[in-house]
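Internal ticket - ligand job 484, 2-acetamido-2-deoxy-beta-D-glucopyranose:
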Amino acid sequence: MKNSIQSILILITVLISTTGADEVVYAQVGETVTLKGPGVTYQLEYMYWKFGNQNGPLLAWCNHLGGERITEDTKWKDKLAWSDNSLIIKDIQQENLGTFVREIIKSQTSNFFLITVLKLNVSVNPPSPLLPGENLSLACSVETPQNLEKPKIHWLTPWGENLEMRQETRRVTSKDNGQWTCVVTADQKEKQTKVSVTVLDLSPAPLRPQYTSKSMPLTIPCSIPPHISWEQIKAKGFQEVVWQFSPKSSLGLIHDSETQKLYVLSLERLRWNKTDQHRELKPVQDPQKRNLTLTRKQGRKEDRGDYMCIMKFKNGVTLSRTVHVEVLQIIPSPGTDLISGQPLNLTCSLSHPLPSDLHLQWSPPKQSSLPKSDHYQAHLTIPEVGTGDGGNWECSLWQGKTQLTSASITLKIEHKLSVWMLVIICSVAVIAILLLILVFILYRHRQRRVRHLRHRLCQCKKYVLTISWTDEMAPNTHLHSHSH
Ligand SMILES: *[C@@H]1O[C@H](CO)[C@@H](O)[C@H](O)[C@H]1NC(C)=O
Ligand SMILES: *[C@@H]1O[C@H](CO)[C@@H](O)[C@H](O)[C@H]1NC(C)=O
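stdout (structure tokens):
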């Protein structure tokens, strides 16, 4: 009787094994697989895991008293572990694939559950990194025994698009960089396997232009993304990085014919070589650190234009990013040195109409009489400037609540009165000088008159003397000469 029951049990087991598994698990070689199965409670008395079938080698057991054991077989020993009534298989290999039988003994009755682990193959060719334009092929497959239902397989792109295929071949672009997912669906269960694809590229350029002004720094960003190393770039046949600049005319046209080469980074030393046309721009960092940004402390009017960061490879592939630069300027008319009462126009602009999502804001000097309502105008007309308008005028460019850049100028305004005073002072000085000259002339004139008079007087004296002498000569010559 006991024998016949046993043989029935064996028969049932054999039937189960041939009709397939209670559960199918897909795993890539090297993955960690958790075997659990349903209905596991802490009240179980014994749990056994066997490999192949019910009579296969015992892999592990545990009991309700907390005892647990794992086989000493070298094929399994270091791969198996118990965790919360589940059996974990780490770094699963080809030889570990197959059917696992769980036996739970509770109140002296046995309960079997079969889990079949099938091999999942995911391949990416060629291995990363790739250059844009290279062909990438992705394949995902499972080895399903004939008696099991074939699962559905499809791919998910890094941006979440569903490709209804097992195989995918495409010419890569930088968009393909990221995690691709192979999805295997069977028995309403999904198994997702991620593979990463690296496509070499430069970091995205800013969506907006870079704004600068004479009072603000100029920064032209370009960098190699953090997940890409110089070694990977060199391995793909790196040749050089070139920074070049195409100025934009006042009409907003880009002149390619005027394109200037600013810097070259060549393979040999991985150091920047500046050209004659470097425009006093400087690289911010050692290029080894993958930051290829150029900068200058202050912007200039002529900085407006397109800056291109170009990475060239020996096979002709080029990766490039274009950074647009706009310069905010304040144009005072007629100038910055004014006299109170003069008219003044101040224009703040990017030398082309502002995009609709940007706005300007003026910050005039504190004492300025500019009405608040004018603070958001690009063009200010001040019919008569006052001395309060002297000082620093700032015009800032905003996108919502973010300040993009600002420009400033200093106005010098002379008091009108001081000019009149200057005129008076000058006149007084002129009059004083004239008076002085007059006094001098008069003095000279008098002096001459005096000398002339004295001369005349002398002559007169002589004459008088002569007369007196002649007078005395006749009657008393002797006496006169005596008196001499
Ligand atoms: C590059 O360097 C500049 C200046 O040091 C810094 O502002 C910028 O964030 C850096 N870029 C990257 C991608 O590290
Ligand atoms: C200021 O602008 C107005 C019109 O925009 C113009 O008529 C006037 O001549 C300008 N004045 C100066 C000083 O530029």
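Auto-summary: Helices lie at 2-19, 230-235, 416-473, 477-483. The longest strand covers residues 109-125.
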